[in-house]
Amino acid sequence: MRAIRVTRLDGPDAVELAEIDEPAGNGVVVDVHAAGAAFPDALLTRGRYQYKPEPPFVLGAEIAGVVRSAPHGARVRAGDRVVGLTMLTGGMADVAVLSPDRVFTLPDNVSFEAGAGLLFNDLTVYFALSVRGRLQRGETVLVHGAAGGIGTSALRLAPVLGASRTIAVVSTEDKGAIATAAGATDVVLAEGFRDAVKELTSGRGVDVVVDPVGGDRFTDSLRSLAPAGRLLVIGFTGGEIPTVKVNRLLLNNIDVVGVGWGAWTLTHPGALAQQWGALEQLLSSGELTPPEPVVYPLEQAGAAVASLENRTAQGKVVVRLRD
């Protein structure tokens, strides 16, 4: 089968399209139609992720496709359209074998490309807003990196989960158009976003900040929170891991909240199924629109991952394996 392999830890440009044997195993065997690309993929190509597989290994943690076979007792069966998580490698290949508890049916109104772009981002954001962020109806959500995968997911999901206003923070005007298309109520540039947010909210601030960027925006994000506001720490695509002076938390009774979706699923059996069940219902009903990912052919998987590393990606990035 075809697969995207990391043979040396020299970054996205070094990944290779190779012919390898199909994987063996007793899980759910899926003919992969599309695979999501995520920021951890870029880190894995350089050996900088906390999980460090030895090369050669196949990239890809989230897939969409059709079940070829499934063990007795699995929630899916041969012929089902599904999405699934490999956790964390093996997805960018013609065939993947997944644990039965990480495979879920894909609604008929969602394409394989959109399905492959749902799992990491939408599940993370759903968990961030509903569980860790305690989002309440009528609240205002500020979204950093709003033109990226997590950002566009937050802009799609926050209104469905009750937010009355979403303020997108972007680095360029072009990215602002992406955020608007994803549903942002307002768009501001990263440079000077704190003053812009203050003006937009008449000095009150926002209730929730979704932050997958980190870096030098962190302190101004804290200062942009309304009383009892929550800053959700999701990642550090900006490179620098910020620190917080905890006295700032006292001033307005604000929270800095860690969002470790993967760690949560490992310690809370059934959490994945519950989270996907909620998303599946929203997608099937049409209340939540699927993402419109940027799709690369399999031969350009390296470029797809590179777009995440160099922060040129606009929205979710997906690799297509089959039409």
UniProtKB/TrEMBL annotation:
Gene3D superfamilies (UniProt xref): Medium-chain alcohol dehydrogenases, catalytic domain, NAD(P)-binding Rossmann-like Domain
Alphabetical list of Pfam families matching this protein: ADH_N (PF08240), ADH_zinc_N (PF00107)
SMART domains, sorted: PKS_ER (SM00829)
Highest taxon listed in the record's lineage: Bacteria
GO MF entries: oxidoreductase activity
Coiled-coil stretches noted in the UniProt entry, renumbered to this chain: none
Ranges of residues in domain Enoyl reductase (ER): 7-319
Name recorded for this polypeptide: NADPH:quinone oxidoreductase family protein
Organism encoding this protein: Mycobacterium simiae
Upper taxonomic lineage: Bacteria, Bacillati, Actinomycetota, Actinomycetes, Mycobacteriales
